[in-house]
Design a protein that fits this description.
globular, four-stranded antiparallel beta sheet, 9 helices, alpha/beta
Length: 248
């Protein structure tokens, strides 16, 4: 494993199992993300990008299993971590921003209630302290009228605002790593540009490392320091972004 890496993945193999049947989705992936680095992961649909991110988060779901390899977050083994430990790590030391923000938001709860859960559960804050942190973070993600937004339900705000809420939720506990899976998919071009600028600004402010998954090479070139190209579940090329785009 690479010393000092925020995230270090070695020889990761992910399988989905149904009885005696096994489907290998990711045969072997290795990569490192250093402190404050933005690492882009690109590749065609179905090559294993999202599965790799879900393996890091421990969200593979029914039948999904890490058959081999290691995932280390700031030196801690996530593959062999107990479920209780993984729950404490998620949201506190790493967070994820999904392609579809509605999948990360509970439609039956107000936005404020969902955001307050993070600092109360992960940081042990009182509700008053948590509210101050939530409002400050909503201002960081440039949410207009954050007090009013906290009282609304997800369906009462736009898609771009929903994505800002999800980004704020991922940032609340000041994690070392945020995984972003096509974070601007489904947004119009203007909102997409705003969200990208926001991600870059927040990364600079908090020094958070990013794993940025995208099909959009223009976004990767703008946001990422280093890029890994995945094909059939394997990293087949890796280089600094400027080098990858000038001499692939």
């Amino acid at each position: 494993m690479t010393a000092g890496a925020v995230l270090s993945i070695r020889d990761l193999r992910v399988e989905y199992r149904n009885g005696d049947q096994r489907t290998v989705v990711v045969p072997e992936v290795s990569l490192d993300i250093m402190p404050g680095e933005s690492y882009g992961l690109v590749g065609e649909s179905g090559c294993g990008k999202t599965t790799t991110a879900l393996a890091v988060m421990g969200y593979l779901g029914k039948g999904g299993t890490i058959a081999a390899g290691r995932i280390m977050l700031e030196g801690e083994d996530l593959v062999n971590a107990a479920p209780e430990r993984l729950r404490s790590v998620r949201g506190r030391r790493m967070g994820m921003v999904y392609q579809e923000p509605t999948s990360a938001l509970n439609p039956t709860m107000t936005i404020g209630s969902q955001l307050l859960e993070v600092p109360v559960f992960h940081l042990g804050m009182s509700k008053a302290e948590a509210r101050k942190l939530v409002l400050a973070t909503l201002e960081d993600v440039r949410m207009p009228d954050p007090v009013a937004v906290m009282q609304r339900y997800p369906h009462q705000i736009s898609g771009g605002q929903q994505q800002r809420i999800v980004i704020a939720m991922a940032l609340l506990a000041r994690p070392a790593l945020i995984l972003l899976d096509e974070p601007t998919a489904g947004l119009d071009v203007t909102v997409e540009a705003v969200v990208l600028d926001l991600i870059m600004s927040l990364r600079g402010k908090y020094g958070t490392s990013l794993l940025f998954i995208s099909h959009n090479l223009g976004q990767i070139a703008k946001v990422c320091d280093r890029v890994g190209v995945m094909y059939s579940g394997v990293i087949v090329e890796e280089a600094p972004a400027a080098e990858l785009f000038s001499r692939p």
